[in-house]
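Justification of resources, computational component.

The compute hours requested in this renewal are based largely on the per-chain cost of generating structure records like the one below. Each record pairs the submitted sequence with a full structure-token output. That output is archived, and it is also reused by downstream analysis tasks.
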Amino acid sequence: MRIQEVMGKTGLSRRTIHYYIDQKLIIPPVNEGNGYHDFTGEDVQKLFIIRKLREAGLSLADIRAILRKPRTTPFYLHKQMNELQTQMLTIQKTISEMDRLSGQLPVCQSLDQLAGMLEDTNFSPDEPPQFQMESRDARLLAQYLWMAYLDTPVTEYQQFLWQKIMQQTMEHARTDLKMMSRYLQSISPERIDATNINQYLRNQKIIALTGADYPTFVEELKTSLLAFASDPVQQEKWSLLYQPLIHPIAAFCVSVSGWMREFHPAYRRYYENTHTCCRMLKDFMDSPEGALLNAALNKAFNGNCDVRTGYYGELEVAATFHKSIYALLSPEQIREFLAGVEG
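The structure output for this chain reads:
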């Protein structure tokens, strides 16, 4: 298929199509006889997808990831919705300030008069540096923790709940979650996205569980935890990160879980299914049949796992630890990070 036909099918210009070829979003073969690109139906389909996703504002980097792994599409759509939600709130604040100013302004007689009125107006309020840092930390933490559940709020009550959650996140970003926010800042966005995709897909699997699926899922947890218990490198990483990062995050999630379960029904299903399956797993571990697994995990955790609070989510964290954000760094890099933050 020649480029003229592709332009007609996709609505893209010649220049744009060549740009996407340069960016290797599509790689059409070149006809050796005339040197022109020979586009396939798959190329046209990809160009159509690129055009539509660009219209939604997604970056080429995110689109490239979607083309490579289509099942990650919901993750990147959520990511873009979060960004648009932030932009919308900023625009709403700006409109509100402009409306307030226009209501106060008389018929403007001079630039001096306009300048005087604008002196007390701030369309982009500058926060104090410390608050600005905490706000950025809170947003980063919220994106990491709740990415899969941040659909645009549609009710005042949802907005109220989200404000409560963000207020709590802000407060904890100054204290017990401060180390986690620094950890997230030390990792590239691309690597965070990669682990967030794994977590997103895992969450979707857990959300979809029914009671009939619980036994099979618990068996999967057993297998994953036995693998963790036989991997000394993962255990070393867990030991290094448990007190400063893993346990504070798990405890914080429990503390706001009531609000989150009201905020988003999918989180309610995730929370309840995780709790139920991990409780079933803990019951097995406490039984004679689970003695070997219990002993192996006790040795692996070496006291660094809290299942006494009635929520057993840390077992789920350990089961997926090798694919989590905590496993991105080597033990040596983790020690270097911790030393740098504490220093």
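The chain is about 70% helix and 0% strand. Residues 129-342 form one domain.
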